[in-house]
Amino acid sequence: MVRVMAVGVFDLLHAGHLHYLEQAKNLGQHLTVVIAHDDTVRIRKHEPVTNHDLRCRMVGALKPVDEALIGNHPDQPMYDILNIVKPNIIALGYDQEHAEERIRNDLNERGFDEIEVCRVSGLSEDLDGTRKIIARILNMREERE
Question: Is 12 left (phi over 0), alpha (psi -120 to 50) or beta?
């Protein structure tokens, strides 16, 4: 069985997230999604709109997802989650800023050289990202005022 791991914040769940997870699931038979810990989101992006428990519950309810879990606290080693998930493939979203080559090198250095890293393609819709959705809502609000 090919085990795929996808990672993300998944704040304000939208069609782009679903597309990413559908593509990730197509890479194997079992999809585990690691939801970013709230403190990680605060450090790397913004204050999360929904907490990691709710984001994990929502993502776990999506059809392509076999398992959803909350990622490590930022004080813990990021790659420790691989010992729990044991993926054959790590699927990256089209807009995730992770450098594939750097991840491959990090995996090799930690003895995970058998894990493949694969970037999936994006959704062709215009509202495929949280920032795009927020911008559209704000624009619609300004037009009404």
Answer: left
Residue 4 Cα distances to 40, 67, 86, angstroms: 22, 10, 9
Cα–Cα distance, 48 to 137 (Å, whole number): 18
The Cα 95–Cα 85 span in angstroms is: 23
pLDDT digits (tens, 9 = 90+) for 37-87: 999 999 988 899 999 999 999 999 999 999 999 999 998 888 899 999 999
Q: How many domains does the chain have?
A: 1
Q: What is the pTM of this model?
A: 0.86
What does the DSSP 8-state code read for residue 78?
A: G
C-alpha span between 34 and 102 (Å, rounded): 19
Residue 54 and residue 40: Cα distance in Å, rounded? 16
Structure tokens at 41: 């989101």
Please state the φ and ψ torsions of residue 7, each to the nearest 5 degrees: -130, 150
For 5-27, write each residue's pLDDT tens digit.
999 999 888 888 999 999 999 99
The enclosing domain of 98 has a CATH number of 3.40.50.620
Strand ranges for the chain from DSSP E:
3-8, 30-35, 67-70, 89-92, 116-119
